[in-house]
Design a protein that fits this description.
- By secondary structure, this protein is mainly α.
- The chain has one domain.
- The protein is built from four helices and no strands.
- Helix 1 packs antiparallel against helix 2 and helix 2 packs antiparallel against helix 3.
- It is elongated and about 55 Å long.
- The chain starts with a helix and ends in a 7-residue tail after the last helix.
- It binds protoporphyrin IX containing FE (HEM).
- The site of protoporphyrin IX containing FE has 25 residues, from helix 1, helix 2, helix 3 and helix 4.
Length: about 150
Amino acid sequence: MAIQYLALVTMIVLYSLMFIGGYISAAGLGLTCPEWPLCPSGVLPSEEYFIEWTHRLVAATTGTLVIATMVASIINKNADLKIKITSSLATVFVITQITLGALVIDLKLHAVLVAVHLGVGILLFAMVLLTTLFAFRISRVPVESRV
Ligand code: HEM
């Protein structure tokens, strides 16, 4: 997949994840699935843990997409330093964010951790947004000026 579409899909999936996270928080569903990494129902979804299970599945998908975008930006010959930096920072933030998600559950929704989870999520979104904008700029560079 071209890097700009990979980055765009990553941003859309990440936005959906943050939306689901906000819903979990506002609806008080944060501890419906009290275990980590899997819910008591295991890998498969169950009605009881559905929203939390979805948040984790979409988080795993987001992690994979963010890392794939970083790899794509590193191997792309036309990619400049800026996109390499933003996509690498996004990878650092996504790994931090998934670790924080586990801690949020382990420490039973400690308020500071939930706030940090939101804060890192915003930083992650900012990096993915910048990566997407830079990726679309690469695709608009005329072929002759790339040589
Ligand atoms: C890329 C990964 C992730 C992102 C971007 C993300 C984002 C978010 C966001 C934006 C919220 C709403 C926070 C708020 O409104 O204060 C949230 C809530 C939450 N997230 Fe994540 N999340 C990620 C991964 C995870 C993982 C792996 C877990 C592990 C189980 C997790 C567990 C939770 C929980 C339990 C809440 C609800 C907290 C509460 O009840 O207040 N998150 N997430």
